[in-house]
Design goal:
By secondary structure, the chain is of the alpha+beta class. The protein has one domain (about 1-195). It contains five helices and four strands, in the order αααααββββ. The protein has helices at about 1-45, 45-50, 55-80, 85-105, 105-115, and strands spanning about 150-155, 160-165, 170-180, 185-190. Strands 1-2-3-4 form a four-stranded antiparallel sheet. The termini are far apart.
Length: about 200
């Protein structure tokens, strides 16, 4: 009887272990699946499908803060002797809010990731020759033709980062994704490259 009980426990242990490993693997790949679905929705021109993966208030807030800080440094740096520079920023800031609110859409984010521009458009831009890679090693500018245009990796259990090179530049726009529940993910913020303010 004891031997039969041990055999039954062994038979039950292996399926349980297999189920646990399968579930754990699914949790691990969940951000990759979410981002694949997000990109597929964009490429198939399905804004409503892409919107499910975007926390619009959080993304807009992150962009407004970065644009105001970056543009403020640029203006004050170029017009440091102008007493009206601060007044200019006071006028510009509300305009930034309006621009971000109207341009942060699935199509607008597509333009930002690939072109480095915030553009108010209802048309999702076409994708041509974009390659994906999970590599995260740094690339020299001389290797730009061989480097992956799209990179992604975990930074913590609940945080996942995607990086995309802006077309014809060495600058990258990073998308910060956060776990929502156990297996769902949403784009929560976007990090702009410093080089975007040098033009």
């Amino acid at each position: 009887m004891k031997i039969n009980l041990e055999l039954n426990q062994t038979k039950l242990a292996w399926p349980a272990l297999a189920a646990g490993l399968t579930f754990g693997g699914y949790i691990f790949v969940s951000p990759y699946l979410a981002i694949y679905s997000f990109r597929s929705a964009l490429e198939s021109k399905d804004p409503s499908g892409a919107s499910e993966y975007i926390d619009f208030p959080a993304v807009r807030s992150s962009l407004k803060e970065q644009i105001k800080v970056g543009l403020g440094k640029k203006i004050l740096g170029e017009y440091s002797d102008d007493p009206f520079a601060f007044l200019g920023m006071a006028i510009v800031n509300p305009l930034i809010d309006g621009v971000v609110d109207t341009t942060v859409t699935p199509s607008g984010l597509r333009m930002l990731f690939y072109e480095g521009e915030l553009s108010q458009t209802d048309q999702l831009p076409e994708v041509s020759g974009q390659k994906e890679s999970t590599k995260t090693e740094s690339m020299n500018s001389g290797d730009s033709e061989q480097r992956p245009s799209f990179e992604y990796h975990y930074t913590s259990y609940n945080r996942f980062v995607t990086s995309n090179y802006i077309k014809d530049t060495d600058d990258k726009v990073a998308g910060i994704w956060r776990r929502k529940g156990l297996i769902d993910w949403q784009l929560k913020s976007i990090e702009l490259p410093d080089g975007i303010w040098t033009d």
